Amino acid sequence: MASCPDRCCLYDTQQIIRQRRLISLAILLLVAALSAFLTISLAVTPRLNATIDDARLNTFTFTFTSSYLTYNLSLAVTVTNPNKAIGISHTAPLVAVLAFHDRRLLRNSSTLVLVGEGYQQRPGKARRVVVVPAVEGRMSGGLLGAAAEEEFRRQNATGVFEVDLLLSGEIKNYPLVIVRKREVGARCALRLQIAPPGPEVVVFHQVNCEPAKPDNMFF
Ligand SMILES: *[C@@H]1O[C@H](CO)[C@@H](O)[C@H](O)[C@H]1NC(C)=O
Ligand SMILES: *[C@@H]1O[C@H](CO)[C@@H](O)[C@H](O)[C@H]1NC(C)=O
Ligand SMILES: *[C@@H]1O[C@H](CO)[C@@H](O)[C@H](O)[C@H]1NC(C)=O
What we know:
It is a single chain. The protein folds into two domains: 1-43; 46-216, Immunoglobulin-like, CATH 2.60.40. It is 27% helix and 43% strand. The protein has helices at 6-43, 107-110, 141-144, 146-158, and strands at residues 49-63, 68-80, 87-100, 103-104, 112-115, 120-121, 127-140, 161-174, 181-192, 207-208, 210-211. The strands form two sheets. Strands 3, 4, 5, 6, 8, 9 and 11 form a seven-stranded antiparallel sheet that branches. The radius of gyration is 28 Å and the shape is rod-shaped. The chain crosses the membrane at residues 22-44. Keywords: Membrane, Transmembrane, Transmembrane helix.
C-alpha cells in the first residue's frame, strides 16, 4: 500500500507472522495432546493386581459322619492398580469366594466384598489392603461332591490344604481417557497348613494372584 509508511507495513507483517506461528504452535500442541489421549486410551487396558499378604487356616475339617466341611480362614489381601498412566475405578464390587478342588464353598456365607463399587485407585501403586478376620462356613458333602471329598482325604493326609481365593469384579479406566470397562478375575492359589490354636504367628510367603476369567468362577 503506497499510503502506508514502510515502518508500519513492516510492523503489521511481523504481527501477522507472530500470530501465525502462535496458531501453528497451538495446533501442534492440540494434535500432540489428542494423540497422547488416544494412545493412552487405546493402548492402556485397565488392570488390577492382587496379592495375598497373609493367610491363616484356623479350621479345615471334614466330618464324614455328618458329611460337612467346616472351614475358617483369615486373610489379608492387597489390591493395586499397576498402571502408571491411568487410574481405575471399580464399576462393580470386587468380590472374593473360596474354592476347594474347583468347588466354590457356600456362596452366601463366603462371598466377601474386598473393594466397594465406585472405589477409585489412582495411577501408580495405589494400594487397597483388606484384612478379613475370618471367612468361615460349613458346606455339605453333597454340595462338595465325591471328587472333592476324595481330594480332601488326600490333602488331609499330607497336612497341606490347597484352597483358592477367586476374585471377580469390573473396572474402568479414568479420568481423561476414553472409558474402557472390563470384567476382571484372578485366582490366588493358597497352600496352607492348619495353624496352631492361639495367637502364635505362622510364617506366610506372599502369593501373587494370577489373572483368570471371571466367568469361570460361577460353578
Ligand atoms: C474362626 O477363627 C478365628 C481365629 O481362630 C476365631 O476367632 C473365630 O471365632 C473362628 N470362628 C468360628 C466360627 O469358629
Ligand atoms: C446360606 O443360604 C442357605 C440356603 O439359602 C441357608 O440355609 C444358610 O443358613 C445360609 N447361610 C448363611 C451363613 O447365611
Ligand atoms: C485328617 O488328618 C488328621 C491328622 O492327620 C486325622 O486325625 C483325621 O482323622 C483326618 N481326617 C480325615 C477326615 O481323614
